[in-house]
Amino acid sequence: MAGKDRESFSGFESIADREKLLLARFAIHSTDTKGRKYAEPVQEYRGPFQRDRDRIIHTAAYRRLSHKTQVFTNELGDYHRNRLTHTLEVCSIARTIARALKLNEDLVEAMALMHDIGHPPFGHSGEDALNECLIDDGGFSHNRHALRIVEVLENRYPDFPGLNLSLETLEGQQFRAAKKDANASPSLEAQVVDAADSIAYDSHDADDALELGLLDIAQLMEVSIWSHAVTKVSEGRELSPVLLRRSVAHELIDVQVKDLLGNTMLELDRLQLRSAEEIKKLPPVVGHSEQIMHQKKDFESFLMHNVYRHPNVINVRDSAQQALRNLFEILKSKPHLLPENYRLRSQEIGLHRTIGDYIAGMTDRFAWREHARLSDD
Ligand code: MG
Fold first, then answer.
1. Ligand 1 centroid, distance to 9 Cα (angstroms)
2. Is the pLDDT of residue 7 over 70?
């Protein structure tokens, strides 16, 4: 049964007062939460979304993000982003946007920290390989798996399975996991997290690819959003390639955030929304101007051709995918090699999904180690 986090506590009232002062009418206020699947007493010193954020941070799945691939695996070096540092960059950008738009920053933070928690080892390559292995069992998607983690797999509380997050925090992830529906939008807070994700990876993937030598700056000068940023940061000065690259990475974030804020504020002004509920019936409101949207599209197609499909990236991808496929086959034919809690769970949910859950939870290095160990078995 859905419970409500609305009991009157002095601490909670001060959170409500603060939000009334700081948040817009169209933000999700803590007092309007629909509560949690399993009712819990309200805490005096933390609002419901702060509590969600803390629960997410304390999960094993969140900690393991530090050893999971974003785009480039850790054999390539130590400079580039991993899934955890990407998550923190998304969170930082999303909070900035949320505060400027007077949205609920705590809710945005919780959703941002959760948004990639369902990634298996080896990023999207790992996801594709697992999806292939599970194709007759409903497939695998990192967005759906994130929900599975927070609703079922993280067992840390005696009174309920998963984390028992607020329905608003879950709803953001449910939208990410569902097929896009043109007639429904998630909360503005969830829209902000999506936008921040794209702002973060467009900027940091180019920065990482340059550091790794997969690209050179001259190539990027054909991309308009990049070349404009170069003109802006150099101001006629001769900057060293490293300083130029790093300054451009910041400028790219700044230009996208400013554009997103300007464009979204205009839209919010035009709509004159009175409540968070009204968002659901509208097309997405948080978005870029036409000009930046086109520039981002060109930038992303450049990154697709020159970075994500770079031979060095593809080589690592192929061997990582083969390792996951092998692991899946080995465990399918020798289920006794699974840890005991997984063997027990396989009796309830079937062997294939259990193996999928086990592999999805692995870090890159644990997957390589298990692959080596079980291949010798
Ligand atoms: Mg992401």
1. 36
2. no
Is residue 228 within 8 Å of residue 68, measured between CB atoms?
A: no
Domain range for 348: 9-375
Rounded distance, CA 21 to CA 103, Å? 12
Q: How far apart are the CA of 204 and the centre of ligand 1, in A?
A: 11
Q: pLDDT for 53-104, tens place per residue?
A: 999 999 999 999 999 988 877 777 777 888 999 999 999 999 999 999 999 9
What's the CATH code of the domain at 216?
Answer: 1.10.3210.10
Q: Which of 25, 10, 4 is nearest to 274 (CA)?
A: 25
Give how far Cα 332 sits from Cα of 92, 117, 134, 358, 363, Å: 41, 25, 12, 12, 20
Asked, for residue 71, whether it belongs to a domain, the answer is yes
Of 241, 216, 194, 224, the residue nearest 310 (C-alpha): 216
Whole-number Å distance between alpha carbons of 77 and 157? 38
Q: Would you say the C-alpha torsion 340, 345, 348, 350 has a positive or negative sign? A: negative
Distance 201 CA to ligand 1 centre (A): 7
195 pLDDT above the threshold of 70? yes
Neighbouring CB atoms inside 10 A of 291's CB total: 12
Task: Compute the average pLDDT of residues 242-261.
Answer: 95
Ligand 1 centre to CA of 34 (Å) is 26
CA of 141 to the centre of ligand 1 (A): 13
User: HSE on the CB side for 216, CA within 13 Å?
Assistant: 1
Contacts of 255 (CB under 8 A, 6+ apart): 225, 228, 229, 232, 292
Helix (H, G, I), strand (E, B) or coil at 2: coil
What is the domain count for the chain? Answer: 1
CA of 270 to the centre of ligand 1 (A): 30
In a domain, 368, yes or no: yes
Is residue 265 domain-resident?
yes
Token pair listed for 332: 């399918």
Other C-beta atoms closer than 10 Å to the C-beta of 104 total 29
Please give the model's pTM, rounded to 2 decimal places.
0.93
Distance CA 265, CA 88 (A): 25
Q: Give domain status of residue 4, yes or no.
A: no
The rounded Å distance from CA 202 to ligand 1 centre is 11
- 106-165 pLDDT, tens per residue? 999 999 999 999 999 999 999 999 999 999 999 999 999 999 999 999 999 999 999 999
